[in-house]
Amino acid sequence: MTNRPAPTLPTPAERRRLREAASLSQAALAARMSVTSTTIHSWETGRATPRGRALEAYASFLTTTADRPGPAGKPVRTSRPQAGTTVKGGEDKARGEVGEKAGAPPEPARAEASRPRPARPEPPRPSPRPPRPTGATPREAFDALYASCAGVLVRQTYLLTGRHTVAVESVERAFQLAWARWPEVAVDRDPAGWVRAAAHEYALSPWHRMRAAHRRPATPGAVLPPPRGRADHDLMDALLSLAPRHRRTLLLYDGVGLDLPETAAETEATTRAAAHRVLSARAAVAERVPALADPAALHRRLDALSPLEPATEEQGALIRTGGERRVRRWTRSAVVLTAVIAGATAFCVSVAPDHYVRPPAAGEAITGVPPHAGPGPLSEEDRSLREKLREHPAAGPERVRPLPR
């Protein structure tokens, strides 16, 4: 059996330009492709690549948009396909177990994609558009990153924990860590994914169980505006009943829209293990909420379950300055602690003995030596001598009186 060559895609920037030329938003294109808006965003940023039927439908949409006449009557033609965007014909084994991420495209789009097209001459390539400015300084770039993905991260983290306070705190800590390591984050292939992984790790940390407020089970709707119906409560209960690893894998795969290899890499698991986690999580959710047995319905419900909180660059500046103050406070505390330890060490060194002092031996009783004897009785000679000394003038008052002449 001969495999058809896989369709090729233009560069990520050209994909976004073609979507904007068709006057479609990411949400509208996602609804047409039966995927999430996050998936469309990942395709347009080059972080992910569509596969299977989703690739055919997406390539058909881009080709149709490129052939559509522009304002000047000329076809809007894409640039030469980017090297490395050709996808293999065979799917990953674990990907096949989980199933296609996106649903089947509509029948007209599938037929149009499979219909052979006549060869046409390649029009002149348009001049490349200047890159969109992302900020002249690292602070502006950080604030723009916060404004673009902080609200989405709060919603995702809320689905992981069920607590709005933990979700907000996790996202703030993740962005503070990103600012502390900004030289590393700025050159990362996916800065938003770097922050997302840090936020998820902090949100699922077992140390949160030590808090007194977290020893009680979370009630969906108690920390956010209540869901619109009973079905949303049931879905939140089903998510919180999953194991943390299964919950995170399901959120990344069905909520965020990552591919299975990317989901496995972010959760630090093998592709097969990630596939089994997705299957187990879907089965558990479908058992409690039968209406969500379809993965496409689960995608839509996960997007609509938690409200999206808008974020601004001013909030990003506050998070950045708060992180800087926190770093300075910890640095000063470390300096003070080091000084205290150094002072205590110097004091101990100064008062400690610098040589060996031999301890005195214990006392012992001495035997065999006669005791000291007092004076004995006077003899006759001793008494006569004593009387003589007493009668001598030197012993009387004459010794201090002058004799008269």
UniProtKB/TrEMBL annotation:
Ranges of compositional bias, category Basic and acidic residues: 89-100, 109-123, 380-405
Region Disordered, residue ranges: 63-138, 363-405
Keyword Transmembrane helix: no
Pfam short name (any one): HTH_31
Listed InterPro entries: Cro/C1-type_HTH (IPR001387), HTH-type_reg/antitoxin (IPR052359), Lambda_DNA-bd_dom_sf (IPR010982), RNA_pol_sigma_r2 (IPR013325), RNA_pol_sigma_r3/r4-like (IPR013324), WH-like_DNA-bd_sf (IPR036388)
Sequence intervals crossing the membrane: none
MF GO annotations: DNA binding; DNA-binding transcription factor activity
Protein name: HTH cro/C1-type domain-containing protein
